[in-house]
Amino acid sequence: MLETVRKEIDDQRRIVIPKEWCDKMKIKEHTTVEMVRKEDKIEITPVRKKSLMDFKGTVGGGDVVDIEEGEKAQMEAAWEDFENSRKRSIENIKKRHKK
After folding, report:
1. Which residue has the higher pLDDT, 30 or 60?
2. Which residues constitute the domain of residue 48?
3. 42 in a structural domain
């Protein structure tokens, strides 16, 4: 079902999500949301913790996985790979200049 509402943005650029929507979507105070800008639209989605059972191909268990932590770990690993690659490049340049 599509519902629309018009809200005014206050002087600190905040908007208030209607209480009824929060109740229906189980959004509480301090819930983290993800905001995506698509051209001239803004999409706001609550960030939820997911059970492993929510992912295709998983079996058994009921452990809770924090998606934000997984994304953070991926970003840290990618940064570490970048830094290692950068260091190797610098070492190679230094070796070439010594010859």
Report:
1. 30
2. 19-98
3. yes
Residue 11 lies in a domain: no
Q: Is 17 exposed, middle or buried (0-12, 13-18, 19+ CB in 10 A)?
A: middle
Helix (H, G, I), strand (E, B) or coil at 32: coil
Q: Is residue 5 part of a domain?
A: no
Q: Which is higher by pLDDT, 39 or 49?
A: 39
In a domain, 48, yes or no: yes
Length of the chain: 99
Token look-up 């070796």 returns 95
Q: Enumerate residues 6+ apart whose C-beta is below 8 A from 46.
A: 25, 27, 31, 32, 33, 34
